[in-house]
Amino acid sequence: MLLYLINPADEDEIETPTPILIWFHSEPFNLLNQGEFFRVILVELNENQSASSGITANIPYFIKNNLTRHQVQYPLDAKTLEYGKRYAWQVQKMANGNIISTTEAWEFYLPKKEVPKDYKYVNVKSKLDGAVYNVVNDRIYFKYDERYVSSNLICKIISDKREEIKPEVEDVETNEEGLKHVGNNKYELDLKPYKLKKGYYTLEIRDEKKNKYLLKFLIDK
Fold first, then answer.
1. Most Cβ neighbours (<10 Å): which of 29, 35, 87, 163?
2. 57 three-class SS
3. Do 7 and 89 belong together in one domain?
4. How many CA atoms lie within 13 A of 173 on its CB side?
5. DSSP labels for 3-22?
């Protein structure tokens, strides 16, 4: 039986803390005997530690038993993979609690991420276009243009379960809550008070003429 890893490749650099782990074996899943199953195991590596040593010695970050597919999405509710750290993973065939076959142990890493000194304000749009804003330090910085004077900013956060939260928004230029200027309006939204769980959300903004602007964002830790 062939049993091997595919992606992330060994010593690969990845950009997402929720990678899809892809592996393969050559026999159908339904040929497993009673008590047999496949599992994937992922560990954090110490400095200068090899992937095989880490799999053997380290406490697992993530284990998923009874695999029935060759793709495993690292879940949002698992322990967060951190930028600047190395991880090792392996798929193991188990029988009655014992490891009877394994893939090689491969490692991957997330590059160090520096917090930008100058915040980049994202333009909110009338329609979602597939782009996702990655939240840094629990804050969203956004802007949009309008052609007339408006003193009220109405906004809400919508979770992927359609739950709604109405946040307070600070006008960066005036430091007055809910007030904005004509033209290039900049706003800062502090997400800490709302204790949002990991996942995807949509920020919806309406002006006084009921024009709607949207921004999809991701909480990944």
1. 87
2. helix
3. yes
4. 11
5. EEEEESPTTEE-S-SSPEEE
Q: In whole angstroms, give the CA distance from residue 28 to residue 216.
A: 39
Tokens representing residue 154 in the block: 């109405």
Contacts of 48 (CB under 8 A, 6+ apart): none
CATH code assigned at 48: 2.60.40.10
How many angstroms separate the CA atoms of 34 and 167, rounded? Answer: 53
* Residue 81 domain-assigned (yes or no): yes
Q: How many CA atoms lie within 13 A of 152 on its CB side?
A: 7
Q: What is the C-alpha separation between 215 and 144, in angstroms, rounded?
A: 11
Domain C-terminal end among 56, 88, 109: 109
The domain of 141 spans 122-219
Interval 66-75: pLDDT, tens: 999 999 999 9
Polymer length of the chain: 221
Residue with tokens 């954090």: 44
Pair 135, 87 in one domain:
no
Is this model's pTM higher than 0.85 or not? Answer: no
| Helix or strand (DSSP H, E) at 181 | none
